[in-house]
Design goal:
11 helices, 276 residues, two-stranded antiparallel sheet, mainly alpha
Length: 276
């Protein structure tokens, strides 16, 4: 892949760097780690390189989780300095979320690419509907559930986030706001959740993809190191800028922007079902 100055690969490298910039901004703005952008971009990147369809979506998700590791750490530190993170909720997630993540990675090793695309699109649409049309009266409770309830939520969030290659913000934002927490606190806390998901998720996808056939060069399991090296530096630089944007935006604007963004992502993956 690096033996010649292939114009196509140069263009793809530039595109990946641009995707990293967008992902970094979104990590800070929405607390999502940028995976909802990276997964579809990586899927197209691997498609142009003619990577086997049977593993293309799996590599996109695993690589996204690897990229999210430093992005989430940088975003979490920035949010935590502002005192916006719910540390108690994160502590209740410490065991539950990684457990769900490992279960998701194990599941990913045995299900089809189309199944992964469908999971991504359906959950994205469900959360988008909530963010765009939910009213203040739509609450499941006046405050977050007990420790047991939070642990159950953590397992579910970790499981589906692992199958989607995201940092958990997509679901945690909805979980917290439905329990009467402000969107800005949800975004800040989700940045910490991204750390709990991305690290065990990366390990899980390395194990799940170990020895699989059809993997492209520079891959360790379902993680492509070339994409990771190109994207990570850019996301680290842009994540703090996203944090500043998040704290400057009104609650309603942030919610609507998040909803529209998720609809676009969902449509992309529903259309991608025809690629298989």
């Amino acid at each position: 892949m690096l033996q010649s100055f292939d114009p196509t690969l140069v263009s793809l490298a530039i595109a990946l760097i641009g995707a990293g910039a967008i992902a970094g901004l979104l990590a800070g703005v929405f607390g999502i780690g940028g995976g909802a952008v990276l997964v579809p971009v990586l899927y197209q990147f691997l498609g142009i390189l003619q990577v086997d369809e049977a593993v293309r979506m799996h590599i996109s998700i695993g690589t996204s989780l690897a990229v999210i590791v430093p992005t989430s750490l940088r975003s979490f530190v920035s949010h935590h300095k502002r005192g916006a993170v719910d540390d108690d909720l994160l502590r209740s997630y410490l065991i539950a979320v990684p457990a769900g993540v490992f279960l998701g990675a194990l599941t990913a090793a045995f299900i089809s690419a189309n199944s992964l695309k469908a999971v991504f699109a359906v959950i994205a649409l469900a959360v988008a509907f909530k963010m765009l049309f939910a009213k203040e009266s739509w609450k499941l409770g006046k405050d977050l559930p007990s420790t047991k309830g939070r642990a159950i939520a953590g397992v579910v969030i970790g499981f589906f986030s692992s199958l989607m290659g995201i940092g958990g913000g997509v679901m945690n934002n909805s979980f917290m706001t439905l329990y009467n927490r402000p969107i800005h606190q949800a975004v800040a806390t989700s940045s910490g959740l991204g750390v709990l998901i991305s690290i065990p998720g990366t390990i899980g996808y390395v194990i799940a993809g170990w020895g699989k056939s059809g993997l492209p060069e520079f891959s360790v399991g379902f993680i492509n190191l070339l994409a990771v090296i190109l994207i990570i530096p850019v996301t680290i630089v842009f994540a703090p800028l996203g944090v500043k944007m998040a704290h400057a935006l009104p609650k309603k604007t942030l919610s609507r922007a998040f909803g529209v963004f998720l609809i676009i992502v969902a449509i992309r993956f529903f259309l991608a079902l025809n690629d298989s």
